């Protein structure tokens, strides 16, 4: 077997899209290859912080005359060194995972300058190197971070035409792995996840159903490494939200519902978990899945700018050295952990009931109704009573325009006949979180009782608005002085007529 041919063909035996190996210069010429010869291997386009290890699976054999050839190491079975099959590499990888193969991995170190690290989305710009490797074939396994999943690569260390040891020149950024029986595409996968409310609604009323839409990408798991895989969504909600376990519906890339037998749903307190079946994951690698589920906004929900947050994260297999590759990656301290957040809001406002002549006098006991249509299109109706401090508070409102009326007056006072228009509006930042909200209250004549923009939760927004009631004793008399005179005259006339009638009756009787 010619080494040049071996190196050229071994160079295409790889299963990771973004791994590449750069040639390393060696001595210009080595007259006789020997077991003392070493070279470096280099892997590029791997994210900073990954764990990269190279396992020697094929060794070189030497004689006093030089290189004799190559043979798999003990415990490794590869019938054609130029075309290792998926099944053969899977067997090797599983034996490494479960410890049945006595091969020690050589750690490859990140040699990229610290200012050259590329983090975040697409963070695959670092170079890893291992020095002092003898001739043979190495299986490179990468445990990624920040949502990346890497399939294996095979790298050769051999000799050039001048018998100088060198690493295989390998560029597989757009490559594939040629195996017996066909051609298998190779991929580097990045796990992503997005989350939002259905239709992008940001604010809800108490007892509203909040529908969430989560879309996530499923890694392309190489069956040579992952005979089993974990991929689950874990969503944790604020106390004011209650998940509906039975509302979960998953759909594949084509929008077709995923059969419920392919995932399980569990609910523990505020945490909803959707765990996809391993066989389904492996069969749908490189695609995406969209999951819809609902939560109810309770009366204990946080108000105004505090909001009600829930966070979904993806727990997934990404360690090719773990048994069957199935050990899930779940590091809460990793800022690159695939996760997405969504915050929904509900609002409140309050005002004081005061005496129309002396606003310092607060009036308890007034009853107000508030009606309108919320952001989901549902009609809503509220009723609140002024407390002992005279404050009326309406809570659990979505954005919208409402009509407010007094339906019962404080004791000793007349009902306020005004119809008030209450408008709740909000502004959101680019991250879809609340930046400010506004409460305005006007009557039918256009008189403004309240119009305030909040950029921080107020201590007592009731002080911004006072709605008066008039005491019965302060009501104007009906008619006026002239009416009073006519009334008295009428009373006298009636009295006089009565007396005259009685006098006539007495005369008749005489």
Short description:
The protein is mainly beta and 510 residues long. Helices cover 11% and strands 43% of the residues. The strands form eight sheets. Strands 2, 3, 4, 5, 6, 7, 9 and 10 form an eight-stranded antiparallel beta sheet that branches. Strands 17, 19, 20, 22, 23 and 24 form a six-stranded antiparallel beta sheet that branches. It has a six-stranded antiparallel beta sheet with strand order 27-26-29-30-31-32, with no helix packed on it.
List keywords for this structure.
510 residues, eight-stranded antiparallel β-sheet, six-stranded antiparallel β-sheet, 4 helices, disordered N terminus, disordered C terminus
Number of helices: 4
Structural class: mainly beta
Bulk shape: elongated
User: How large is the radius of gyration?
Assistant: 40 Å
Overview of this structure, please?
It contains 4 helices and 33 strands. It is mostly beta strands. The strands form 8 sheets. Strands 2, 3, 4, 5, 6, 7, 9 and 10 form an 8-stranded antiparallel beta sheet that branches. The longest helix has 29 residues, at 481-509.
Give the helices and strands, then pairings.
Layout: H1 3-10, E1 20-21, E2 39-46, E3 51-63, E4 66-72, H2 86-97, E5 106-110, E6 126-133, E7 136-143, E8 148-149, E9 153-159, E10 165-167, E11 170-171, E12 176-179, E13 182-185, E14 189-190, E15 193-197, E16 209-217, E17 231-237, E18 241-251, E19 263-268, E20 271-276, H3 278-283, E21 288-297, E22 308-317, E23 328-329, E24 339-344, E25 347-355, E26 367-373, E27 379-385, E28 391-397, E29 400-408, E30 419-428, E31 434-443, E32 448-454, E33 466-469, H4 481-509
Parallel strand pairs: 25-33
Antiparallel strand pairs: 1-11, 2-6, 3-4, 3-5, 3-7, 5-6, 7-9, 8-14, 9-10, 12-13, 15-16, 16-21, 17-20, 17-22, 18-21, 19-20, 22-23, 22-24, 25-28, 26-27, 26-29, 29-30, 30-31, 31-32
């Amino acid at each position: 077997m010619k080494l040049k041919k071996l190196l050229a063909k071994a160079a295409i035996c790889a299963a990771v899209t973004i791994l590449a190996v750069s040639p390393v210069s060696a001595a210009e010429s080595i007259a006789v290859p020997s077991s003392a010869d070493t070279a470096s291997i280099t892997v590029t386009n791997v994210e900073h912080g990954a764990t990269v290890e190279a396992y020697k699976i094929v060794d070189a054999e030497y004689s006093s005359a030089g290189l004799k050839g190559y043979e798999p190491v003990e415990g490794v079975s590869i019938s054609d060194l130029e075309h290792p099959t998926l099944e053969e590499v899977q067997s090797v990888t599983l034996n490494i995972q479960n410890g049945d193969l006595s091969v020690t991995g050589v750690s490859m170190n990140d040699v990229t300058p610290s200012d050259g690290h590329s983090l975040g989305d697409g963070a695959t710009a670092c170079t890893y190197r291992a020095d002092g490797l003898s001739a043979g074939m190495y299986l490179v396994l990468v445990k990624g971070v920040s949502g990346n999943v890497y399939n294996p690569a095979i790298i050769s260390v051999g000799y050039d035409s001048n018998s100088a040891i060198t690493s295989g020149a390998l560029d597989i950024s757009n490559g594939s792995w040629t195996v017996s029986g066909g051609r298998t595409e190779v991929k580097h996968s990045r796990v992503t996840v997005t989350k939002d409310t259905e239709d992008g609604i940001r604010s809800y009323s108490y007892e509203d159903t909040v529908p969430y839409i989560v879309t996530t990408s499923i890694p392309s798991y190489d069956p040579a490494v992952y005979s089993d895989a974990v991929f689950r969504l874990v969503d944790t909600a604020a106390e004011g939200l209650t998940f509906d376990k039975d509302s979960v519906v998953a759909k594949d890339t084509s929008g077709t519902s995923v059969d419920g037998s392919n995932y399980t749903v569990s609910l523990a307190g505020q945490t909803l978990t959707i765990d996809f079946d391993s066989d389904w994951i492996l069969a749908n690698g490189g695609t995406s899945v969209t999951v819809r589920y609902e939560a109810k906004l309770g009366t204990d929900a946080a108000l105004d700018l505090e909001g009600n947050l829930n966070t979904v994260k993806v727990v997934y297999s990404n360690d090719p050295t773990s048994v069957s590759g199935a050990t899930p990656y779940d590091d809460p301290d990793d800022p690159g952990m695939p996760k997405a957040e969504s915050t929904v809001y509900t609002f409140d406002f309050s005002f004081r009931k005061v005496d129309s002549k002396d606003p310092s006098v607060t009036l308890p006991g007034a009853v107000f109704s508030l009606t309108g249509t919320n952001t989901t299109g549902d009609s809503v109706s509220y009723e609140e009573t002024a407390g002992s401090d005279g404050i009326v508070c309406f809570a659990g409102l979505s954005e919208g325009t409402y009509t407010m009326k007094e339906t019962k007056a404080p004791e000793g006072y007349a009902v306020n006949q005004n119809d008030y228009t209450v408008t709740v509006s909000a502004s959101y930042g680019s991250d879809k979180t609340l930046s400010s909200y506004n409460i305005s209250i006007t009557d039918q004549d256009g008189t403004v009782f309240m119009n305030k923009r909040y950029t921080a939760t107020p201590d007592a927004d009731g002080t911004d608005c006072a709605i008066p009631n008039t005491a019965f004793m302060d009501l104007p008399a009906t008619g006026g002085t002239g009416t009073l005179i006519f009334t008295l005259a009428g009373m006298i006339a009636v009295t006089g007529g009565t007396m005259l009638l009685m006098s006539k009756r007495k005369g008749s009787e005489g």
